[in-house]
Amino acid sequence: MTLLEKCHKSMDELNLYLQSLIQEACSHLPASPQHRKALNSLLRAVQKSGRIWRPAVGDIYEEALCKTMFNLTKTLCDKYDPSRSSFMTWFNTCLHNQYKDEIRANKRDRSHKQSVWQSDEVELDPLDRVASGIDATLLLDTWESFVQWIKDDPDNLLKACHIENNPKANCQLLAYLRLVIGKEWQEIAAEVGSSRGAVTSHWCRKCESLMQQWLEQNQRVFGEDNYER
C-alpha cells in the first residue's frame, strides 16, 4: 500500500469514527448525559486527528478555534449535513470562516486604537496581550461550569474586583460580557462607563489571573474514548 493510499485509508477511518460519534450525539436529547459524552468524545477526536486547519501565521487562531468548537456543540445536529461533505471538511470550513471574522474584528480594534492616537487621547491599551479566557481544550462540561461560576460568583471574588471608583466595571460583569456574550472591548467599556484602555488594563492585571486560577483548579478533560490513529 502506498503512502497516499494509507493516508486515504486513515482519513476514511477517521471520518467513519467521527460520523458514529455524531450519530450517537444527535440520537439523544441535547441536555442528556449521552449527548454530552458523545460531543466531548467528538471534540477530543477532532483535536487528536491532526486534520484541523491552521493558518501559516496568526495570534488570533486559538480564539477562532475555541469559538468554532463551542459553536459546534450548539449547532452540530441542525447544521451539519453528512451527505454534502466529510465532517472535517465542514469543521475546517467553519473554522476558516470564524478565523476571518476574528481578523475583521481585530482590524476594527486596530482602527479604533489608531483613531485614539490621532485624536491625542493616548492610552496604554494592553489589548494585544489579552489572551482568550478559554482555550480549545476547555470542553463542554468544563465550559458550562466555568460560565456558571462567573454568573454565581459564590465567593464574591469577581464582583469585588473592580476598577477604582467604578464598582460596575468588575471582573464578574467583564467576564460575562467578554467571554459568555462575546462583546467587543469598546462595547464593554461603554456599558460599564470606563475607558476602553482602563477596562482592558484591569482585565489583564486583575481579572485574567482570577479566571486562570479557576481553570487550573477545575479544568477537566471529558470523553476519553479517543480515536487512535
Write a concise keyword list for the protein shown above.
mainly alpha; disordered C terminus; 229 residues; 66% helix; single chain; globular
Structure commentary:
- A hairpin with a 2-residue loop joins β1 (162-163) and β2.
- The protein is built from 9 helices and 2 strands, in the order ααααααββααα.
- A two-stranded antiparallel ribbon has the order 1-2.
- It is globular.
- The chain is mostly helical.
- It has helices at residues 3-26, 33-48, 61-79, 87-118, 140-152, 157-160, 171-181, 185-192, 196-218; strands at residues 162-163, 166-170.
- The chain has one domain (3-218).
- The longest helix has 32 residues, at 87-118.
Spatial strand order of the main sheet: 1-2
What string gives the helices and strands in order?
A: HHHHHHEEHHH
Task: For the record, give the distance between the C-alpha atoms at the N and C termini, rounded to a whole number.
Answer: 17 Å
Number of domains: 1
Detail the topology: elements first, then pairings.
Layout: H1 3-26, H2 33-48, H3 61-79, H4 87-118, H5 140-152, H6 157-160, E1 162-163, E2 166-170, H7 171-181, H8 185-192, H9 196-218
Antiparallel strand pairs: 1-2
Helix pairs in contact: 1-2, 3-4, 7-9, 8-9
Brief digest:
With 229 residues, this protein is mostly helical. The chain has helices spanning 3-26, 33-48, 61-79, 87-118, 140-152, 157-160, 171-181, 185-192, 196-218; strands spanning 162-163, 166-170.
